[in-house]
Amino acid sequence: MPLTDSATDNLAAERPSRLAAVRRLLGELELDAILVQRRTTSRYLSGFALRRGDEGTSGYSGSLLVTAVTYALTTRSA
User: Which of 78, 73, 1, 77 is nearest to 37 (CA)?
Assistant: First the structure.
């Protein structure tokens, strides 16, 4: 079930602080990047969520790659 628009907006608003925490951890562990493949964790960190009506065209699964300077979210359509 997709998230409501207000819940999606809240996730997106919190993204910068969540990514900053991941980047701090990368530095502490001396890692170049982290690849997140669990859907719920990827959505939590990236703020990505489906809006109503997107279920048929947007992927429910994908990966999130976070580095010290950028991130990339890939999705797979059903």
Answer: 73
Q: What is the pLDDT of residues 60-78, one digit of tens each?
A: 567 899 999 999 988 766 5
Which whole-number Å values give the CA distances from 60 to 9, 26, 30, 33, in the listed order?
18, 26, 31, 23
Q: What is the pTM of this model?
A: 0.70
Q: What is the sign, positive or negative, of the torsion defined by CA atoms of 57, 2, 23, 34?
A: negative
Whether residue 15 contacts residue 7, with contact meaning beta carbons closer than 8 Å, is answered with: no
Structure tokens at 14: 């919190």
Residue 7 and residue 14 in contact, taking contact as beta carbons nearer than 8 Å: no
Q: What angle is formed at CA 64 by the lines to CA 10 and CA 33, rounded to 5 degrees?
A: 120
